[in-house]
Amino acid sequence: MTVRRISVFYFLVFLILISGACKTESVEGVYDARTLGASANDLLTSSRYSSLQIDIQYMPGYAPDASAVSNLVAFLNTRVDKPDGVTVIQEQIPASSLSAMSLFNIASVERNWRMHFTGKNVLSVYVLISNGYYSTPDILATSYWNTSFCIFGKSLDDNSGQSGQVSRSILMTTLLEHEFGHLMGLVDQGSPMQASHRDDLNGAHCDNPDCLMYYNVEAGFTGALSTVPSLDANCIADLRANGGR
């Protein structure tokens, strides 16, 4: 069985919530600590939130590539209806002393350091780039709440930038866009499928190996690859049916 590198652990969300890892009272209405996919329509449309703010917090040595951030904004501008725009705020936070972080650890970092939350006309998304691995080392990124995901810096480094590997910027872009796909409800986790294309063996992922939302999307990367995978027609149809572009 192929090992998953990008994984969304839905069953752990409940464990986190009951063990005290949910947001404090500073999160208005606990909007930003809900089930993954719960904000798909809000992300895609302008009916409740006319702008999208992305809060990227990274640990020392793991700032995102400028081109990856630019690519992400361009990707979102083609898929979401946010007339007041998509903005990105970046901030370095202290390094973790843990070489590998559990989902509970990740949520604790967000609880302690996240500064921007959804409110008024602004939907806020939190992105953490850690300085270590996930507790399962071959996982590169994971989405865990409706407006939250994490990229694991050491795993990113291990799989990019060296001879025969994809560039760091392309892999970073792919991970950012893939995880945003999950926040937008792909596949069938907030944005209902218009045609059957969910990979039931691998959770909320597309069954098309050429699609951005394939469960092991980065496994096909080689040093010669120069483009980020795109959403396939089925995924685009799902987003459009839920109010996206």
Give the SSE map.
Blueprint: H1 10-18, H2 40-44, E1 51-58, H3 66-79, E2 86-92, E3 100-101, H4 103-113, E4 122-130, E5 133-134, E6 141-145, E7 148-152, H5 153-158, H6 168-183, H7 233-241
Parallel strand pairs: 1-2, 1-4, 3-5, 4-7
Antiparallel strand pairs: 6-7
Helix pairs in contact: 3-6
The number of strands is: 7
Contiguous helical run count: 7
**Amount of beta strand:** 15-25%
Determine the structural class based on helices, strands and strand pairing: alpha/beta
Low-confidence stretches: 6-29
What best-fitting shape do the alpha-carbon axes yield?
globular
- Alpha-carbon distance between the termini? 35 Å
**SSE pattern, N- to C-terminal:** HHEHEEHEEEEHHH
Provide the domain count.
1
Task: Write up what this structure looks like.
This protein has 245 residues and is an alpha/beta fold. It has a single domain, classed as Collagenase (Catalytic Domain) (3-Layer(aba) Sandwich). Helix content is 29%, strand content 16%. A five-stranded mixed beta sheet has the order 2-1-4-7-6, with helices on both faces. It has a two-stranded parallel sheet with strand order 3-5. Strand 6 (141-145) and strand 7 form a beta hairpin. The protein is globular. The model is unreliable at 6-29 (pLDDT under 50).
